[in-house]
Design a protein that fits this description.
- Strand 1, helix 1 and strand 2 (36-38) form a beta-alpha-beta unit.
- This protein has a single domain, classed as Divalent-metal-dependent TIM barrel enzymes (TIM Barrel, Alpha-Beta Barrel).
- It is built from eight helices and nine strands.
- Helix content is 41%, strand content 13%.
- By secondary structure, the chain is α/β, with parallel strands linked by helices.
- The strands form two sheets. It has a seven-stranded parallel beta sheet with strand order 1-2-3-4-5-6-9.
- It has helices at 17-29, 58-78, 97-118, 135-144, 157-162, 167-174, 204-213, 231-244; strands spanning 2-4, 36-38, 82-85, 121-124, 151-156, 178-183, 185-186, 194-195, 219-222.
Amino acid sequence: MEIRAERPHAYPKDLSAAQVNALQQCLDLHKIRICCLSGISGSPTHEAREASWIDSDRHRHEERIQYTRECLRLAAAMGIPCILTEAGGIVSRDMQREEAWDLCVNNVARVLPLAEKLGVTLIIQSEPGFLIESTEHLLDFLRDLDFHPRLKANMDVGNVYCAGEDILDSWMKISPHAAHIHLADIAVSKIYRYVPLGEGILDIPRFLEKVSDAGYNGFATVRLDFSDQKAEDVVTASADYLRRKGFLAKKPE
Protein backbone atom coordinates (compact mmCIF):
# COMPACT_ATOMS: atom_id res chain seq x y z
CA MET A 1 0.00 0.00 0.00
CA GLU A 2 0.92 3.67 -0.30
CA ILE A 3 0.79 6.03 2.68
CA ARG A 4 0.75 9.80 2.81
CA ALA A 5 3.46 11.85 4.49
CA GLU A 6 0.87 13.91 6.32
CA ARG A 7 -1.45 13.53 9.29
CA PRO A 8 -2.82 11.10 10.29
CA HIS A 9 -0.59 8.73 8.28
CA ALA A 10 3.05 9.69 8.69
CA TYR A 11 3.93 13.37 8.82
CA PRO A 12 7.74 13.21 9.23
CA LYS A 13 8.02 15.94 11.88
CA ASP A 14 5.52 14.11 14.10
CA LEU A 15 7.43 10.86 14.25
CA SER A 16 10.21 10.03 16.68
CA ALA A 17 12.55 7.12 16.03
CA ALA A 18 10.54 5.06 18.52
CA GLN A 19 7.29 5.85 16.73
CA VAL A 20 8.77 4.92 13.36
CA ASN A 21 9.89 1.62 14.86
CA ALA A 22 6.41 1.01 16.32
CA LEU A 23 4.80 1.78 12.97
CA GLN A 24 7.16 -0.62 11.22
CA GLN A 25 6.37 -3.37 13.75
CA CYS A 26 2.64 -2.83 13.20
CA LEU A 27 3.06 -3.10 9.44
CA ASP A 28 5.17 -6.25 9.79
CA LEU A 29 2.61 -7.81 12.14
CA HIS A 30 -0.16 -7.29 9.59
CA LYS A 31 2.11 -8.27 6.67
CA ILE A 32 1.69 -4.91 4.96
CA ARG A 33 4.40 -3.59 2.68
CA ILE A 34 4.69 0.11 1.92
CA CYS A 35 5.58 0.61 -1.73
CA CYS A 36 5.52 4.41 -1.80
CA LEU A 37 5.41 7.39 0.55
CA SER A 38 3.30 10.18 -0.93
CA GLY A 39 4.96 13.51 -0.26
CA ILE A 40 2.68 15.49 -2.55
CA SER A 41 1.02 17.56 0.15
CA GLY A 42 4.07 19.29 1.58
CA SER A 43 2.02 20.17 4.64
CA PRO A 44 0.78 18.52 7.87
CA THR A 45 -2.75 18.01 6.51
CA HIS A 46 -4.31 17.91 3.06
CA GLU A 47 -6.37 20.99 3.89
CA ALA A 48 -3.36 23.15 4.71
CA ARG A 49 -1.74 25.25 1.99
CA GLU A 50 1.07 23.20 0.61
CA ALA A 51 4.61 24.44 0.21
CA SER A 52 5.42 24.41 -3.50
CA TRP A 53 8.64 23.81 -5.42
CA ILE A 54 7.94 27.04 -7.31
CA ASP A 55 6.41 29.26 -4.64
CA SER A 56 7.44 32.87 -5.24
CA ASP A 57 8.04 33.13 -1.49
CA ARG A 58 11.56 31.75 -1.02
CA HIS A 59 10.75 30.56 2.49
CA ARG A 60 7.86 28.49 1.15
CA HIS A 61 9.84 26.63 -1.47
CA GLU A 62 12.60 26.07 1.11
CA GLU A 63 9.90 24.41 3.23
CA ARG A 64 9.15 22.08 0.30
CA ILE A 65 12.81 21.16 -0.03
CA GLN A 66 13.15 20.47 3.69
CA TYR A 67 9.89 18.48 3.77
CA THR A 68 11.07 16.35 0.85
CA ARG A 69 14.37 15.65 2.56
CA GLU A 70 12.47 14.58 5.68
CA CYS A 71 10.32 12.28 3.53
CA LEU A 72 13.44 10.75 2.01
CA ARG A 73 14.88 10.06 5.46
CA LEU A 74 11.61 8.54 6.68
CA ALA A 75 11.36 6.35 3.59
CA ALA A 76 14.94 5.15 4.06
CA ALA A 77 14.28 4.35 7.74
CA MET A 78 11.21 2.29 6.82
CA GLY A 79 12.63 0.60 3.74
CA ILE A 80 10.20 2.38 1.40
CA PRO A 81 11.69 2.45 -2.12
CA CYS A 82 10.28 5.76 -3.35
CA ILE A 83 8.54 8.99 -2.43
CA LEU A 84 6.11 10.86 -4.65
CA THR A 85 6.24 14.63 -4.99
CA GLU A 86 3.93 17.18 -6.61
CA ALA A 87 3.98 18.08 -10.30
CA GLY A 88 6.09 21.17 -9.75
CA GLY A 89 3.30 23.33 -8.37
CA ILE A 90 0.79 25.84 -9.72
CA VAL A 91 2.45 28.74 -11.53
CA SER A 92 1.50 31.99 -9.80
CA ARG A 93 0.46 35.11 -11.70
CA ASP A 94 3.58 36.96 -10.62
CA MET A 95 5.93 34.42 -12.22
CA GLN A 96 6.68 33.55 -15.83
CA ARG A 97 6.45 29.87 -16.75
CA GLU A 98 10.12 29.77 -17.79
CA GLU A 99 11.15 31.22 -14.43
CA ALA A 100 8.97 28.69 -12.59
CA TRP A 101 10.42 25.84 -14.65
CA ASP A 102 14.03 26.80 -13.88
CA LEU A 103 13.20 27.24 -10.19
CA CYS A 104 11.62 23.79 -10.04
CA VAL A 105 14.54 22.12 -11.81
CA ASN A 106 17.06 23.80 -9.52
CA ASN A 107 15.11 23.02 -6.34
CA VAL A 108 14.52 19.37 -7.17
CA ALA A 109 18.21 19.06 -8.04
CA ARG A 110 19.02 20.08 -4.46
CA VAL A 111 17.34 16.98 -2.96
CA LEU A 112 18.74 14.42 -5.39
CA PRO A 113 22.14 14.02 -3.68
CA LEU A 114 20.34 12.92 -0.48
CA ALA A 115 18.06 10.60 -2.47
CA GLU A 116 21.13 9.01 -4.03
CA LYS A 117 22.90 8.69 -0.66
CA LEU A 118 19.86 7.05 0.97
CA GLY A 119 18.98 4.84 -1.96
CA VAL A 120 15.43 6.23 -2.23
CA THR A 121 13.90 7.26 -5.55
CA LEU A 122 12.01 10.54 -5.94
CA ILE A 123 9.10 10.09 -8.34
CA ILE A 124 7.20 12.90 -10.01
CA GLN A 125 4.04 12.91 -12.11
CA SER A 126 2.16 15.12 -14.52
CA GLU A 127 -1.06 16.79 -13.38
CA PRO A 128 -3.51 19.11 -15.18
CA GLY A 129 -3.14 22.75 -14.15
CA PHE A 130 0.33 22.30 -12.69
CA LEU A 131 3.76 23.23 -14.04
CA ILE A 132 4.27 19.65 -15.24
CA GLU A 133 0.86 19.00 -16.75
CA SER A 134 1.58 16.62 -19.63
CA THR A 135 3.71 13.59 -20.43
CA GLU A 136 5.90 15.73 -22.67
CA HIS A 137 6.47 18.17 -19.81
CA LEU A 138 7.40 15.28 -17.55
CA LEU A 139 9.89 13.93 -20.08
CA ASP A 140 11.37 17.41 -20.53
CA PHE A 141 11.74 17.75 -16.76
CA LEU A 142 13.53 14.41 -16.41
CA ARG A 143 15.75 15.35 -19.35
CA ASP A 144 16.67 18.70 -17.80
CA LEU A 145 17.91 16.79 -14.76
CA ASP A 146 19.91 14.46 -17.00
CA PHE A 147 17.64 11.50 -16.26
CA HIS A 148 19.11 11.24 -12.79
CA PRO A 149 18.96 7.59 -11.62
CA ARG A 150 17.14 8.63 -8.43
CA LEU A 151 14.51 10.72 -10.25
CA LYS A 152 11.79 8.75 -12.02
CA ALA A 153 8.23 9.11 -13.27
CA ASN A 154 4.94 8.14 -11.71
CA MET A 155 2.37 7.31 -14.39
CA ASP A 156 -0.96 8.52 -13.03
CA VAL A 157 -3.56 7.16 -15.42
CA GLY A 158 -6.31 9.49 -14.22
CA ASN A 159 -4.16 12.62 -14.45
CA VAL A 160 -3.01 11.69 -17.95
CA TYR A 161 -6.54 11.11 -19.20
CA CYS A 162 -7.85 14.32 -17.62
CA ALA A 163 -5.05 16.24 -19.35
CA GLY A 164 -6.56 15.11 -22.67
CA GLU A 165 -3.91 12.51 -23.45
CA ASP A 166 -4.26 8.91 -24.59
CA ILE A 167 -3.12 6.73 -21.68
CA LEU A 168 -1.55 4.11 -23.96
CA ASP A 169 0.45 6.68 -25.93
CA SER A 170 1.54 8.31 -22.69
CA TRP A 171 2.67 4.99 -21.26
CA MET A 172 4.73 4.16 -24.34
CA LYS A 173 6.57 7.48 -23.96
CA ILE A 174 7.15 7.39 -20.22
CA SER A 175 7.57 3.65 -19.56
CA PRO A 176 11.40 3.64 -19.82
CA HIS A 177 11.48 6.11 -16.92
CA ALA A 178 8.52 4.87 -14.85
CA ALA A 179 9.07 3.65 -11.29
CA HIS A 180 5.46 3.64 -10.12
CA ILE A 181 1.91 3.63 -11.49
CA HIS A 182 -1.31 5.08 -10.11
CA LEU A 183 -4.26 3.11 -11.43
CA ALA A 184 -7.65 4.77 -11.61
CA ASP A 185 -10.85 4.76 -13.60
CA ILE A 186 -12.71 7.93 -14.56
CA ALA A 187 -16.45 8.48 -14.23
CA VAL A 188 -18.54 8.12 -17.38
CA SER A 189 -19.40 11.81 -17.05
CA LYS A 190 -15.69 12.44 -17.78
CA ILE A 191 -15.38 14.80 -14.84
CA TYR A 192 -12.17 14.66 -12.81
CA ARG A 193 -13.48 11.99 -10.45
CA TYR A 194 -12.17 8.51 -9.74
CA VAL A 195 -14.47 5.49 -9.63
CA PRO A 196 -13.67 1.81 -8.86
CA LEU A 197 -11.77 0.00 -11.61
CA GLY A 198 -14.11 -1.25 -14.32
CA GLU A 199 -16.89 1.21 -13.48
CA GLY A 200 -15.56 4.07 -15.60
CA ILE A 201 -14.59 4.75 -19.18
CA LEU A 202 -10.91 3.76 -19.22
CA ASP A 203 -9.73 0.50 -20.77
CA ILE A 204 -7.75 -0.68 -17.75
CA PRO A 205 -7.08 -4.24 -19.06
CA ARG A 206 -5.57 -2.94 -22.29
CA PHE A 207 -3.41 -0.49 -20.36
CA LEU A 208 -2.15 -3.25 -18.05
CA GLU A 209 -1.37 -5.44 -21.04
CA LYS A 210 0.84 -2.65 -22.41
CA VAL A 211 2.47 -2.33 -18.98
CA SER A 212 3.24 -6.04 -19.01
CA ASP A 213 4.52 -5.89 -22.59
CA ALA A 214 6.96 -3.15 -21.55
CA GLY A 215 8.48 -5.45 -18.93
CA TYR A 216 7.55 -3.12 -16.08
CA ASN A 217 8.17 -4.81 -12.73
CA GLY A 218 7.37 -2.00 -10.29
CA PHE A 219 4.28 -1.33 -8.20
CA ALA A 220 0.87 -0.06 -9.26
CA THR A 221 -1.41 1.38 -6.59
CA VAL A 222 -5.14 1.99 -6.99
CA ARG A 223 -6.10 5.60 -6.33
CA LEU A 224 -8.97 6.69 -4.14
CA ASP A 225 -11.27 9.62 -4.65
CA PHE A 226 -10.63 10.72 -1.09
CA SER A 227 -13.82 12.77 -0.87
CA ASP A 228 -16.18 9.92 -0.07
CA GLN A 229 -14.74 6.51 -0.92
CA LYS A 230 -13.85 3.98 1.76
CA ALA A 231 -10.49 2.34 1.24
CA GLU A 232 -11.71 -1.13 2.20
CA ASP A 233 -14.52 -0.97 -0.38
CA VAL A 234 -12.22 0.22 -3.16
CA VAL A 235 -9.57 -2.38 -2.33
CA THR A 236 -12.09 -5.23 -2.41
CA ALA A 237 -13.78 -4.07 -5.62
CA SER A 238 -10.47 -3.39 -7.37
CA ALA A 239 -9.00 -6.76 -6.37
CA ASP A 240 -12.12 -8.59 -7.59
CA TYR A 241 -12.01 -6.71 -10.89
CA LEU A 242 -8.30 -7.39 -11.45
CA ARG A 243 -8.79 -11.08 -10.65
CA ARG A 244 -11.64 -11.36 -13.14
CA LYS A 245 -9.45 -9.76 -15.80
CA GLY A 246 -6.50 -12.06 -15.04
CA PHE A 247 -4.14 -9.45 -13.55
CA LEU A 248 -4.22 -10.69 -9.96
CA ALA A 249 -3.79 -14.17 -8.53
CA LYS A 250 -6.95 -15.96 -7.53
CA LYS A 251 -7.83 -16.22 -3.86
CA PRO A 252 -6.59 -19.45 -2.25
CA GLU A 253 -9.26 -22.12 -1.79
